[in-house]
Design a protein that fits this description.
The structure holds 2 protein chains of 2 kinds. Chain A is mainly alpha-helical. Chain A is built from 17 helices and 2 strands. Chain A folds into 2 domains: 72 residues, no CATH class; 302 residues, no CATH class. Chain A has a two-stranded antiparallel sheet. Chain B is globular, with a radius of gyration of 19 Å. The mean pLDDT of chain B is 87. The chains are: A mainly alpha, B mainly alpha. At the A-B interface, helix 1, strand 1, helix 9, helix 13 and helix 15 of A face helix 2, helix 3, helix 4, strand 1 and helix 9 of B.
């Protein structure tokens, strides 16, 4: 970099920082106390904005410049990204088995090494792994943008809460019932939206999610309204009464089992006849129908299966927290689950798992930042998307090339 | 009968506000096919900027008419600036990314903006200064139509006429329509597509800010969370009318506003939003591309 280009960069960044000073002026600098009718001019904030935006702008312009430089270099160097090296590990069976083994052992000893607080957070993260994998069926594989996924989660949770409250049914009895009821709801939602395309589907599912939440909130006789349902039983363990700490550990292992089962089933589904039909449907509906795939049946199974997992996790959620109310099932929740799927890389199982860990553990470990943590969460979502739009680990589909090379992967 | 007319006008007012926000959604969608989830937050920022500017001016003792004009101007300018910046930062780098990535970026932006206002200002409800006085000539009709309802309806109508003029008869409008129809082709005939997209964001944001100003002075209080539900409703309205279609957004908003108003008035206010979304689902079942949307026929 020459002196003149450094100088130019500084001028550019100064202009950008001036723009941000202008942009944030009314909200950052002025604060009005409407009752005492006093205006506080917080000029210090202006300096703060100016310096921060100047530094960030310098930094990001440099990052973008380096990326551009790298893109002009030959292909091989370009591909040496972190994600790709992770990808390579998963391609080699030896390394993959070793890594899986390490992760598995680590997850087995986790509750004995870390505190029960950490274990609870981990359990939550594992729940979101399953939710993410469930939504991945609908969004990632079948390509149906679902913004109301949390509704099925709510259905599962309320199924358990209500059955437990009124009929004292246990966790293990309700687990399949909750899943099936949620699947039924998925089926019911699936019918009217079969004809809708992309974004219309998105808003209808969003509306559906809100309808379920509003009904739970307002139909007091049925769901006890906003005050929610308390004293839900924890899962039973062969009739033995568990202390709180051991219940947490038990819940953790339960989730490990659920995650393993889900990964197994989803990865089997992915390459099954049905999974291939979903992917084909996502790529081209018309061509898919011409090939003799029943669009109606395929879409409905995607909705129902995705909802089934949400229902199961709903039951687990209700039994884990022993208290639920409609406030747990807002649109933000759907948005977070969807972000897990997209951030991880749509359709890729490993990606979804990583996405869930990042998005759920990050706000927890950002807690020291307390009030800034949701701000940081939003910022990180935007940055991740800007710098890795295809997700952390893009779903790689096997493809055959006609050249005389080994079987190669191509994104 | 009076009750019916009152509900009718309150529905129209509601619909008018939805329309101001929905236009931004539908214009952006028409041009780059993105659901701009941060649009509701722009509306909220418009309302907050109006609050700050109006309060400061009224504390320093400006006359009401000057306050109204300057507040409207400031809200539109700053919201436009926010819209412009958001597009440049969060959407432009993602123009060729997979379809869902900009959506997540938009959701992130929405969370970011909400918390920005929460941190920079406050999480409490703020009382919004009354900018629209009770006109003496409206007293006779006060039980069916308030002064601020009248102002909202008139302003919205004026804005709609201006917007229609802009899109139908100016060079920029023509370029916008061309970009919406076919971006590549528009580029080939020499339209600066990036500039058109920026202009669309600025116009849409300014409209939302005016909506924010009007509704805030109508209701009399604001907080950082108002953007979310207003955004979702306006988006519902845009889809209801057929997303991408400008008259559709207006029609959808009016239908939605009236439905909500009558449902609240005659049935129950608890289920207001349930009615709104049920209406959406019903209309989309029978007319999958919205009221005025064109059904896309795919040739194979």
């Amino acid at each position: 970099m020459t002196i003149s280009s450094v100088f130019r960069e500084i001028i550019r960044s100064s202009l950008i920082s001036l723009w941000f000073v202008f942009l944030t002026f009314p909200l950052m600098v002025i604060k009005v106390n409407p009752i005492e009718r006093v205006v506080h001019w917080r000029w210090g904030n202006m300096l703060y904005v100016a310096v921060t935006s100047f530094v960030l702008s310098l930094f990001f312009r440099e990052v973008v410049r380096r990326r551009k430089l790298r893109e002009t270099r030959p292909e091989e160097e370009n591909r040496a990204g972190i994600a790709l090296s992770i990808r390579r590990i998963f391609d080699e069976p030896g390394k993959r088995n070793m890594l899986t083994g390490i992760v598995f052992c680590f997850s087995l000893v986790f509750p004995f090494v870390f505190s029960s607080y950490q274990t609870t957070i981990m359990t939550t993260a594992l729940m979101y792994v399953v939710l993410g994998l469930g939504l991945n069926i609908v969004v990632g594989m079948a390509g149906l943008l679902d913004l109301g996924y949390v509704a099925f989660y709510a259905v599962g949770a309320y199924t358990y809460a209500l059955l437990n409250h009124h009929f004292h049914l246990g966790f293990w009895t309700v687990l399949p019932i909750g899943g099936l009821v949620a699947a039924l709801f998925g089926f019911l939602l699936g019918f009217p939206v079969l004809r809708l395309r992309g974004d219309y589907l998105a808003i209808v599912t969003l509306g559906f999610g809100e309808i379920i939440r509003l009904i739970l909130e307002n139909w007091g006789k049925f769901s006890q309204g906003p005050s929610g349902i308390a004293n839900i039983s924890r899962p039973g363990f062969f009739g033995i009464h568990l202390s709180l700490d051991s219940a947490i550990v038990y819940m953790y292992y339960l989730m490990i089992v659920f995650v393993l089962a889900t990964i197994f089933i989803v990865s089997r589904l992915q390459n099954s006849r049905l999974g291939r039909a979903w992917i084909a449907l996502r790529e081209d509906e018309t061509a898919c129908q011409v090939m003799g795939i029943d669009k109606r049946k395929t879409k409905l199974t995607a909705f129902a299966l995705g909802a089934f997992w949400a229902g199961i996790i709903g039951v687990v959620f209700a039994s884990k927290t022993t208290f639920i109310n409609p406030a747990s099932f807002t649109f933000l929740e759907s948005a977070i689950i969807l972000s897990i799927v997209v951030l991880g890389g749509m359709g890729s199982i490993i990606g979804v798992i990583m996405g869930a860990f990042i998005l759920i553990l990050m706000p927890e470990y950002l807690r020291p930042l307390s009030q800034y943590r949701m701000f940081a969460f939003g910022l990180i979502l935007v940055l991740m998307m800007v710098f890795r739009p295809q997700g952390l680990i893009a779903n790689v589909r096997s493809a055959y090339h006609f050249e005389k090379t080994k079987r190669t992967f191509h994104a | 009968m009076n009750y019916f007319i009152e509900l009718f006008f309150s529905g129209l007012t509601r619909g008018a506000i939805y329309a101001l926000i929905a236009l931004g959604y539908t214009m952006v969608y028409g041009i780059i096919g993105l659901i701009n989830f941060a649009h509701g937050e722009i509306y909220m920022i418009g309302a907050f900027t109006s609050f700050v500017v109006a309060s400061v001016l009224s504390i320093y003792g400006f006359p009401l008419i000057a306050i109204v004009i300057m507040t409207g101007f400031a809200a539109a300018v700053w919201a436009g600036a926010y819209g412009y910046t958001i597009e440049k930062l969060a959407y432009k780098p993602l123009r060729h990314a997979p379809r869902l990535s900009p959506l997540i970026s938009a959701i992130g932006m929405s969370i970011l903006l909400q918390n920005y206002v929460l941190l920079a200002q406050t999480s409490d409800f703020l009382p919004f200064p009354k900018l629209i006085p009770d006109f003496p000539f409206m007293e006779r009709y006060a039980d069916v139509l308030g002064s601020s309802d009248l102002v909202i309806l008139l302003t919205t109508t004026a804005v709609m006429i201006l917007l229609t003029f802009l899109i139908k008869y100016t060079r920029i409008g023509k370029a916008m329509r061309a970009t919406a129809q076919d971006t590549t082709m528009a580029m080939l005939v020499g339209i600066n597509v990036n500039r058109i997209i920026s202009i669309t964001f600025v116009i849409g944001s300014a409209l939302a800010a005016i909506g924010g100003l009007l509704i805030a002075s109508h209701i009399g209080q604001i907080n950082f969370y108002i953007g979310f539900i207003a955004g979702i409703k306006a988006f519902t309205a845009a889809v209801l009318g057929g997303i991408g279609s400008i008259p559709g957004a207006v029609l959808g908003s009016l239908v939605l506003g009236l439905t909500e108003s009558f449902a609240t008035g005659y049935v129950s206010s608890d289920y207001e939003d349930v009615f709104a979304f049920s209406l959406l689902v019903l209309i989309l079942i029978f007319k999958p591309s919205g009221l005025l949307g064109k059904a896309v026929i795919k040739k194979v």
